[in-house]
Design a protein that fits this description.
CATH superfamily: P-loop containing nucleotide triphosphate hydrolases
Oligomer: single chain
CATH architecture: 3-Layer(aba) Sandwich
CATH topology: Rossmann fold
Number of strands: 5
CATH class: Alpha Beta
Number of domains: 1
Radius of gyration: 16 Å
Order of helices and strands: EHEHHHEHEHHHEH
Strand order of the largest sheet: 2-3-1-4-5
Shape: globular
Structural class: alpha/beta
Strand content: 5-15%
């Protein structure tokens, strides 16, 4: 990896807007890697139906068998491949655990830029209830929060993010705030490669 290459890693609770940030940057031409993509590929490989329960089960099984940092190590390997192809930035969606956070910071050092996307719990849960794909009932949203905080220790990476985006209003505002943040930290669309 060249010293100029950087991984921009998004973390946030369900419904915070992290995936919206990632999709926005993907449309602008940034290459994107998804933690969830690794899990989905493994679900398919095992011949299981794609659903929340199977994804959770496979994610937990991978971590139990290959270590808590397995997904971060796989993502870093994919990022390194993109960096060797000349990409300056790689966007990563789905940092979950404290272990993964530490792996990114240890292996990529200052090249790992972690952005925490935050929103009030009630706002997040309303978004989850209204989403088109896999909407959550309140009890499901609450359980997902607990699973991510207690089960995979997602609070640590959010608390230690390098930068934060507050997402309390709408998608247009989030995108404007993301553009402003990226400009402030020196990330330019013109420097993709």
């Amino acid at each position: 990896m060249s010293k100029k290459s950087q991984a921009i890693i998004f973390v946030g609770m369900p419904g915070s807007g992290k995936s919206s940030c990632v999709e926005y940057l993907k449309k602008k031409g940034f290459p994107v890697l998804y933690f969830g993509g690794i899990v989905l590929d493994e679900v398919k490989k095992r011949g299981l139906e794609l659903n929340e329960d199977n994804e959770k089960s496979v994610r937990e099984d991978l971590r139990a068998k290959e270590g808590k940092g397995v997904l971060a190590l796989k993502i870093i390997a994919e990022a390194e491949n993109l960096f060797t192809k000349g990409y300056r930035y790689v966007i990563i969606d789905g940092l979950y655990s404290w272990t993964e956070y530490k792996i990114f910071k240890e292996m990529l050092e200052e090249r790992a830029i972690i952005i925490g996307v935050i929103a009030p719990r009630a706002v997040r849960h309303q978004r989850l209830a209204n989403r088109a794909v896999r909407p959550f009932k309140e009890k499901d949203a609450e359980q997902r929060d607990y699973d991510e905080i207690e089960g995979v220790e997602k609070g640590g990476p959010i608390a230690n993010a390098d930068y934060y985006l507050a997402n309390e209003t709408n998608l247009d505002e989030l995108e404007k705030d993301l553009d402003k943040l990226l400009s402030e930290i020196g990330v330019s669309i013109g420097q993709l490669i």
